[in-house]
């Protein structure tokens, strides 16, 4: 769970560095919009996540993402975790 | 930036295709094509009034939309003439909303006039800067309005309100046609400069909002009326994903473009 959470945090931070403070404080229950990310930033973060987790998220699931937990769940269901993925960038 | 003859010719052809269909298949007028005699005020409520008034209000900024839309595209015949035709069609949308509000008794003429006055106290200004960004905005915004009006059509159908059904059917059809034209022009832009146009798509989506949303009185309260707009999920599902797919732009493209932009900064 922690690996997925870290991966999600790194992807969100990469898509929206200006929201780093709120991302640092987020919990799985935090809503993405409360972090300051709009829809296009969420898509960008999803792309980083897909690359890092070697995943392809279904559009209909991505459309339903509201909380950080939803992204973590997507990674768990569709991805292969490599915790170093973002460190290598 | 100068526009090539080839591009101007392509835009002219695109406009002629759009205009031919509009003239031959899509023309309607508020006197003959709406079954006003069937209007039953009992089928409406305050929620309908709020929704229709809000859509009417968005259309009321038409003079501002025209001023910006025509001027920014004046060097390209096809796009400037589209802007003129678009304005004519949108003007009918405001008219039919106003007529419905007053004829149905949802608003008195005096109430409507006060609303109109309050809306026009502010002047709309475009958030986009270039013609390309304006066109991209149009591709997303027209699809959004199509879905909103389609939703109103479904509501009216459920209420067996044949008059409102017809109103929504006609204007939704117009919005879909506008979206089709904008999509074609965005495709030309992508063909010419894929990365630049994709960067503009990201930029436009990043600041996207309905026109008038930040200047119309009580807009957010109005939007809270059930079914007045789309949810975030519906916006993603019905607007963003299909439009990006049409343009052949993937999430990976967005990430690549944004990373490159960040490196340049």
Summarize the biggest pleated sheet of chain A. none
CATH architecture of chain B: Orthogonal Bundle
Characterize the largest beta sheet of chain B: strand count, sense, and whether it forms a barrel: none
Helix content class of chain A? 55-70%
What is the rounded distance between the termini of chain B?
Answer: 23 Å
Q: How much of the residues of chain B is beta strand, in percent?
A: under 5%
- How does the overall form of chain B come out from the CA principal axes? globular
CATH superfamily of chain B: Ribonucleotide Reductase, subunit A
List the helices and strands and how they pair.
The complex is a heterodimer of chains A (89) and B (265).
Chain A: H1 2-15, H2 20-25, H3 32-35, H4 39-52, H5 59-63, H6 68-78
Helix pairs in contact in A: 1-4, 1-6
Chain B: H1 5-26, H2 46-60, H3 62-72, H4 77-103, H5 109-119, H6 131-158, H7 162-192, H8 194-206, H9 219-223, H10 232-247, H11 251-264
Describe the structure.
- Chain A is globular, with a radius of gyration of 11 Å.
- Chain A starts with a helix and ends in an 11-residue tail after the last helix.
- Chain A has a single domain (2-78), classed as Non-ribosomal Peptide Synthetase Peptidyl Carrier Protein, Chain A.
- Chain A is mostly helical.
- Chain A has six helices and no strands.
- The model of chain A has no long low-confidence stretch (mean pLDDT 90).
- By secondary structure, chain B is an all-alpha fold.
- Chain B has one domain (5-24, 40-264): Ribonucleotide Reductase, subunit A (Orthogonal Bundle), CATH 1.10.620.
- Chain B is 73% helix and 0% strand.
- Chain B contains eleven helices and no strands.
- The longest helix of chain B is centred in the last third of the chain and has 31 residues, at 162-192.
- Chain B is globular and about 60 Å long.
- Chain B starts with a helix and ends with a helix.
- The chains are: A mainly alpha (89), B mainly alpha (265).
- The A-B interface holds A 15, 17, 33, 38-41, 43-44, 46-48, 50-51, 59-60, 62-64, 66 and B 202, 205-206, 208, 232-233, 235-237, 240-241, 250-252, 254-255, 258, 262.
- Chain B: Keywords: Fatty acid biosynthesis, Fatty acid metabolism, Iron, Lipid biosynthesis, Lipid metabolism, Metal-binding, Oxidoreductase.
- Chain B: Belongs to the fatty acid desaturase type 2 family.
